[in-house]
Amino acid sequence: MLESASGDAGRGWETLGDAGRDREERYFFVNPSYPLALTFLLFMPLSIALPTLAPVNGRSFGILKDPEVRAEDLYWDPAYIGSLSRLSTYFDHLELPVLSCQERLICELTADPDTFFPISQIFMKEIRLTKGPVNTTTDCLMFRYVSAAGAGLISPREKCASTYPRCQLPAVRVINMAVLRL
Q1: Which of 33, 69, 126, 152 could serve as 111's disulfide partner, Cβ 3.0–4.6 Å?
Q2: Could you tell me the residue ranges of all domains in the chain?
């Protein structure tokens, strides 16, 4: 037993000095017959979560027969450079450099946004045309992304595979939704 300077035995807080003397004792009771639910909130930046969204099995884009167009090769509309660079960063984290697979992913995210929530909301926020019209040629990257989103809005998710046949990766293989559902 610890004994304080005042002679009280059994109280260890007295050894802390005067700082512990003016505190009240508090008790926490748990009723064992009542169910207890503990909930934890986990806040983390998306930049930490995105690398874990990619599946652990590798993907090879070397099996494509023809050289594939990449997003860097197309025209980036100056009004949408911020959105396009954020989308490019997301695709880099997902290890999805091929444009046809990026378009298929956007198509599937817009076709079924509830299944891919919150990723679908993040991508759709960047694809909104809030800064005016874009160049409507296939050489314009923002137009390609908006067209892919439009294809997803008017058709079911399964139709995106036939719309973008060069990409064999469905969105469920690109994004590991089990990680987001935790």
Answers
A1: 152
A2: 46-180
